[in-house]
From TrEMBL:
<keyword id="KW-0808">Transferase</keyword>
<feature type="domain" description="Sulphotransferase Stf0">
    <location>
        <begin position="6"/>
        <end position="255"/>
    </location>
</feature>
<keyword id="KW-0119">Carbohydrate metabolism</keyword>
<comment type="pathway">
    <text>Glycolipid metabolism.</text>
</comment>
<dbReference type="InterPro" id="IPR027417">
    <property type="entry name" value="P-loop_NTPase"/>
</dbReference>
<dbReference type="GO" id="GO:0016740">
    <property type="term" value="F:transferase activity"/>
</dbReference>
<protein>
    <recommendedName>
        <fullName>Trehalose 2-sulfotransferase</fullName>
    </recommendedName>
</protein>
<dbReference type="InterPro" id="IPR024628">
    <property type="entry name" value="Sulfotransferase_Stf0_dom"/>
</dbReference>
<comment type="similarity">
    <text>Belongs to the Stf0 sulfotransferase family.</text>
</comment>
<dbReference type="InterPro" id="IPR015124">
    <property type="entry name" value="Stf0"/>
</dbReference>
<feature type="active site" description="Proton acceptor">
    <location>
        <position position="35"/>
    </location>
</feature>
<comment type="function">
    <text>Catalyzes the sulfuryl group transfer from 3'-phosphoadenosine-5'-phosphosulfate (PAPS) to trehalose, leading to trehalose-2-sulfate (T2S).</text>
</comment>
<dbReference type="Pfam" id="PF09037">
    <property type="entry name" value="Sulphotransf"/>
</dbReference>
Length: 263
């Protein structure tokens, strides 16, 4: 594998990036684009519900979130971690894929131990000195994104996998949604600033475009990787949005207008 055969989907949570990477993975030739960079070395776990609300002391919000599992320390060296990530993300034709959220970039930088402490340096360390193809997935409707995030963080259900009944325990909370909206908006702002500062060309994909034509959008990325666009599959995931999602978005918009929450 070399950087010319690698791509990195850069996004924030609930932006539609999972739909894209699952579609790419389903081709069998576009790498195995997992979220390799989400795991804390101190726990070997991705951010847990209460970790998304670090610094929040509202007992009502905290009571709606599962307690934090301490997990197990990951003792792999940087080089062993790098080898594992590259091996896990590659398909037999030598194409590697992965997904990186902005909140995960400090973990990647720490793993790389690059001298300048830069994200570009950490990415180039991962790929042997060069850049991968960058794919930027974003969602312009922040209210819908934050509502989706709040439901997922509460229930720990991140996709429609037949366990939709678990969503029944989700409770609307405007302050919690606003807190997550600030995080998601900040992530998107940082991605855009980084791409501009580093003069990085990206394939730009918005949630609405992706959900309207997942096959065509996947084909766009395949072409950029010089792979057969005809391999782009029908959407492999069902949308999680439902009538309650729409109701909560409407409710949050009204609360945001009254209270100055982010939209």
């Amino acid at each position: 594998m070399n950087a010319n055969n690698a791509y990195l989907v850069c996004a924030s949570q609930r932006s539609g990036s999972t739909l894209l990477v699952e579609s790419l993975a389903a081709t069998g030739v576009a790498g195995k684009p997992l979220e390799f960079f989400q795991y804390f070395p101190t726990s070997s776990l991705s951010p847990q519900p209460r970790e998304w609300f670090a610094g929040v002391d509202d007992p009502e919000i905290i009571s709606l979130l599962d307690e934090t599992d301490p997990g197990t320390v990951d003792n792999r060296s940087s080089e062993q971690w790098r080898r594992d990530v590259l091996a896990e993300g590659i398909t037999g034709n030598g194409v590697w894929g992965g997904k990186l959220m902005w909140n995960q970039t400090p973990l990647l930088i720490a793993r790389s131990r690059v001298g300048d402490g830069s994200l570009r340096g950490a990415i180039r360390w991962l790929f042997g000195g060069a850049d991968p193809l960058f794919v930027h997935v974003h969602r312009d409707n922040l209210a819908s994104q934050a509502v989706s995030m709040w439901r997922a963080v509460q229930t720990r259900v991140w996709r429609d996998d037949g366990n939709s009944h678990l969503d029944d325990r989700a409770v609307y909370n405007a302050e919690a949604i606003a807190h997550l909206a600030r995080i998601l908006a900040e992530q998107e702002r940082r991605w855009r600033e980084w791409f501009a500062a580093e003069d990085i060309p990206v394939i730009d994909i918005e949630f609405g475009q992706l959900t309207k034509d997942p096959t065509g959008t996947t084909a766009q990325v395949l072409r950029a990787l010089q792979l057969d666009p005809a391999l782009a599959p029908p959407a492999p995931l069902k949308p999680q949005s439902n009538a309650r999602s729409k109701e909560w978005v409407t409710r949050y918009r009204a609360d945001a207008e009254r209270n100055g929450y982010p939209l």
